[in-house]
Amino acid sequence: MKRYVLRRVALAIPTLFLVSVIVFAMMRLMPGDVATRMVEGHAYAPTLAALRKDLGLDRPVHVQYAEWIGGIVLRGDFGNSYWTRQPILDEFVRRFPVTLELAALTILVSVVIGIFVGIVSAVRQDTASDYVGRILAILALSVPYFGLAVLVVVLPSIYFKWTPVWTYVPLTRDPLENLKIMTVPALVFGVTRAGPIMRIMRSSLLDVLRQEYIRTAWSKGLSERTIVLRHALKNAMIPVVSLIGLQTPLYIGGSVIIEAIFRLPGVGLFFFEALNKLDYPVVQSVNLIIAAMVVGLNLLIDLSYAFLDPRIRYR
Amino acid sequence: MRFWTRASDIDSHRAALPTSSVGAAVAVAVPRPPRTRPWYADVWIQMLRRKPLGTIGGVIVVVMLGAAVLADIIVPYGFAQTSLSERFIAMNGAHWLGTDQLGRDLLTRLVYGARISLYVGFGAVLLGCVLATAIGVLSAYFSGPFDLWLQRGVDAWMAFPPLLLLMSIMSLLGPSVWNITTVLGVAFGIQNSRIIRGVALSIKEYTYVEGARALGSGHLRITVGHILPNVLPTIIVVATTGLSTVILTEASLSFLGLGVPPPYPTWGGMLSLAGLDHMYQAPWLAIWPAVALSMAVFGFNMLGDALRDLLDPRLKGG
């Protein structure tokens, strides 16, 4: 097990290096000049050349890359925003709890709905409840979450005169008020993400229920409840867990849009605002941090497979 | 064309899959000699017989295609034609789905929106499939360090949340139809090269490839003449299941103002936050684009799923 863990960790390092190269090259090789934008917006420096020198943009690209990556690896310094001159990591850490809470609630909503409907669908295969479940899954797959979010913001205010003010309150200050604000975005996002989970839960549980050891369990006279929940579910969960892992990047990418619609001051909104201002250091560092998180998470998922299914360790 | 016939001539398990399953089904019902219909015609007949949802999806896709191609003929207004005396009309005989804040006809804009969605969707998927096939087949064929490094690059690309990466690129390039098609195509290609590579790796091991090599065929002849035709069903599956994702991604980028720029109507752009204030006055401005987008995604999803089941059941559940 220890050797397996070490090998998996070693494989993640070249990936992270390439991630940083892709992010950096993308930001520097593409058209779009932050200095021009800044001089147009505010008179930070007398001339373009002076501003470029001030930001360090006049130096060769590889020097800039080395400085950026060196700061991260050696000092844990992710650089400063061009516009506010504030450290990026501080802002990221301040805003991350919002995004994390949104993601956690979203995953909770989608997993609870997805697993419940998936189990019912599989156990009652080809009955009315199965068809309802499958139709729900197809609907959830088809409705775009931002469309649903816009409808949820707009329609109740017209037809029910329900216009909540979306001002964010931190969880630590007032947990109840915070949950009230986070519930709607998490529900909207979670419901649309439940579709794939329902489908994979259903098909994976159906596969497992056809296996020999389930027949043995039936012939021992166990109740359906025990067979499904105790014997079948753990094995059927493996593809579901891997799907949730695969979908995590989608949760993070989608949270940019959800945060923009519901005005939640999370990392997504930070990223989106930086994008509009062509704030290179913010965009590249946020991209890098999130990609690193995704790589880390995938690693954890792989390791959890090895834990769930010992055969994997010896491959 | 030559590759298609050859794919069904030789004893290729992949291309022959749908045909042989039809042969079996028919043999049970009526004892008749096996059909000689080409596999790509059989797929559609099987779809009509066994996949009702896929057929509904197909109908939606055909309607959407028709709307996109015939947009200039079927709607009486221009997509940017404003009429300030007719702002915020809910629904009437002249404007079936109402008008927006500038008096533009909503139905007209939805129909032209289908054109943009399909234009970007098909363009990106076409580009993506060419790229995915090139990366996948080459990576599988020339294994070794070339494959290893290329795949680490693909790993690194796939570590990003797709929307974050696409947003970064689009904000640097600036919104335009051309840019978004190219960027979505490249992203689609890199992501799906994995699947193509997997299939190409298994095809490479077949004896007919070894036989071709023994006969002295060059790299080009083996990859293009022997591997490519047998990867083709998988490419079709990847393309049809991917279309809904690409259309949805284009809509999300346009929603954020990073996709197709204003005068062109897009479903994502029509839903976008910029028009939120008007939607409180005229909810149909939010409802119909959302419905159109959901219908399109539903149609392509169902069609893609059905085609995947018929063409390549091994990819199921992905």
Structure, described:
- The complex is a heterodimer of chains A (315) and B (318).
- Chain A is 78% helix and 0% strand.
- Chain A has 12 helices and no strands.
- Chain A has helices at 2-29, 34-41, 48-55, 61-75, 88-123, 128-142, 145-159, 175-209, 212-219, 224-262, 267-276, 280-308.
- The longest helix of chain A has 39 residues, at 224-262.
- Chain B is mainly α and 318 residues long.
- Chain B folds into 2 domains: 1-34, no CATH class; 39-315, MetI-like (MetI-like fold).
- Chain B contains 14 helices and no strands.
- The chains are: A mainly alpha (315), B mainly alpha (318).
- Chains A and B meet through helix 1, helix 6, helix 7, helix 8 and helix 10 of A and helix 7, helix 8, helix 11, helix 13 and helix 14 of B.
Set down the secondary structure blueprint.
The complex is a heterodimer of chains A (315) and B (318).
Chain A: H1 2-29, H2 34-41, H3 48-55, H4 61-75, H5 88-123, H6 128-142, H7 145-159, H8 175-209, H9 212-219, H10 224-262, H11 267-276, H12 280-308
Helix pairs in contact in A: 1-12, 5-6, 5-8, 5-10, 6-8, 7-8, 7-10, 8-10, 10-11, 10-12, 11-12
Chain B: H1 2-9, H2 13-29, H3 39-50, H4 52-69, H5 71-74, H6 106-141, H7 145-158, H8 162-173, H9 177-204, H10 207-214, H11 219-255, H12 267-271, H13 276-281, H14 284-311
Helix pairs in contact in B: 1-11, 2-3, 4-6, 4-14, 6-7, 6-9, 6-11, 7-9, 8-9, 9-11, 11-14
Oligomer: heterodimer
Assign the structural class of chain B, choosing from mainly alpha, mainly beta, alpha/beta, alpha+beta, or little secondary structure.
mainly alpha
Mean pLDDT of chain B: 79
In helices, the fraction of residues of chain B equals over 70%
> Ends of chain A: how far apart?
11 Å
Q: What's the total count of β strands of chain A?
A: 0
Mean pLDDT across all amino acids of chain A: 82
Supply the number of helical segments of chain B.
14
Overall spatial form of chain B: globular
| Beta strand % of chain A | under 5%
Rounded Rg of chain B: 23 Å
Count of discrete alpha- or pi-helical segments spanning 4 or more residues of chain A: 12
List the uncertain runs of chain B. 1-27
Number of strands of chain B: 0
State the secondary-structure class of chain A.
mainly alpha
Strand content of chain B: under 5%
Question: Which stretches of chain A are low in confidence, meaning pLDDT under 50 for 5 or more residues running?
Answer: none
Main sheet characteristics of chain B: none
How far apart are the first and last residues' alpha carbons of chain B, in Å?
30 Å
Per the CATH scheme, the topology name of the largest domain in chain B is: MetI-like fold
